[in-house]
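quick one before i forget lol
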Amino acid sequence: MQNCEQIKIDTGAKAQGRWTALGWTFLFVALGCSWLLYSGKDWNWDLINYHFYGPDLLFRDRWRKDFFAASIQSYLNPIAYVPFYLLVKFEVPDLIIGGLLATLQSVNIFFIWRLSRAILPAAASTSIVAVATLLASVAPLFLAEFGSTFNDVLTSILVLWALELTISCQSKPASTVWKTLFSIGLLLGIATGLKLTNMMFVVSLGATVLYVLIKREDARHLTSGIGFLTIGLATGFLVTHGYWSWKLWTEFGSPFFPFFNGIFKAEGYPSVNIRDIRFMGGGALGVLTMPFEMARSEGWIYAESPAPDIRFGFLMVVAFAATLRSILEKLFQKKANAVNQKLLAVAFFFISSYIVWMFISRIGRYAMPLWLLIGPLFVTVAFLRFNKRIVFALSLGLVLMQIGVSELGRLSKWDPVDWSGKWFDFDLPMEITSEAVRLITTDNQTMAAIVPSLNSKSSVTNIVGQYALGFGGDTPPRLKELLSSTDARPLYLMRTISLANNNPNNNDVEHSNFRWANETIAPYGLTINEVPSCIYGALKGKQAIQHRANELQVGYKLLFCKLHRIPLEKQTAAETYTSRFDKIFEFWEKLCPSNFSPRGTNTTIVNGVLARTYFNTSNELYVVNETMYASSARSLEANELPKLNIDMASPENVQCPPMPKRRYLK
């Protein structure tokens, strides 16, 4: 009878805890909507490039119509972007779309509350749990993605949920723990299928599960536990990425095309592994300095835009002080406070995830669960050494400081745009939308977001952008089909001009934009006869309220110019001219693989300059007046390389040159 009463009490307490968490979550949603109104909707680069395009590829079966329409991101799993795509297609007002996205993303706050309650001491009041959750919610990257199409802030829900289940394994009976382990694997598998970069959490949370199982008294079931975790992981991945992998395999011969092509070697694309390492650097020492570097109001520290975060540095200081005090207490044989095992498990997950992240990408968006966990971890560690009032005051003070730093650092969405009724307000010419056409793009920003507005029989290809497609004998078969002279559909070159400088009608910009276009596209057998034959389109908006003082028009001007084929002898001459320094390019790639990766990038002519741009390392080799230079993204200078005889296969006494130093950007 007593056991039954205890079960009722425990069940009632859990139910009350859930309702409390939900209540506070709704409060945070209300506060978040205020931020959403202030910060505007986000026309981030990825949205314009592939977030809106991917679902259209899926639903309108564009596999044989387009080829790299959104460059290398064309074939990322689009399932997470489907709700947004459908809401836009059904012309739901943009503010409602943003509110729905934000409400879904607020589930992160629900799990942060529950994790805070789990790792804080039982004596912690509701106000302490609330301030821990509030400290999590002011994470700059969380606010920057709030209400946007980025799926990092969506899949983080699954990771946090899996973490909560993991720490619950410490008290689960052996007869039911296998269900929890399967569920953990299922959640991680779903998250990884939606976004492959979540594989880092498979490693760190998998290690945390092992840590928790080893701590249990019945650790003899470790092998079976790992088995259930693995089965759940495989099931979840198949649910969200199984169909997509199968489709990529049947279309290209690789389940992750074009990524991991050094392994799968899909036809029509270089056999290289694409990996974004733009933020890498600093070595092992960076693991210790990054928490303090993140406090700077500069871009390209751990995010493209400034996202100053002072919370991590404070967490490091408090954790160091708490650890030092525990060591001293043991040395002097004083009684140390017992540490919550759930706190140790969460700390183990945080540290292992952070280390993995530091050594594989250092891209802040990919570590969203960590930035949210800083809130409960800081408050809990502080609670170990201070009384409730001091902890509350310290934590609330840190919240206010973080808000102030974010405001001073002009934290915003990636590309904030005012609410206008429609998420996109494209103004496209009828010749492009009503007729079946072939569009060729040569910009890094492919503007593939226009594809859902095109005729279902149109085709789009990005031949030179983030990664240049081959020409001549290296032309991918699908590109040959799309450029075929027997195809009667009109062929246009689409160029994109940013309106960020509030200069939408500058014809000089337009002419300079096309001055070198013919040299770029000539190796593919194409040319523009006359610039005046171009037709125009646009995607226009105004900057969000946050930046209203500037009153700048933002968006893009789109130019569509008719293309024509050039004689074969001219195409061959263009191929020869473009390839004339390839041996030198290849020499430097072989000598300096850490600077110029991936190796074997195709040569292009950009603004009249022969160049190879390396996606992995964001570096570039280019030739001016027969001299080759090496430059880095965001650098103000370039290094001149030693002149080499083009016929020398292996020049002696040549060393890999230092790359120009990259800048952080204000």
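fyi Confidence is low (pLDDT under 50) at residues 1-13.
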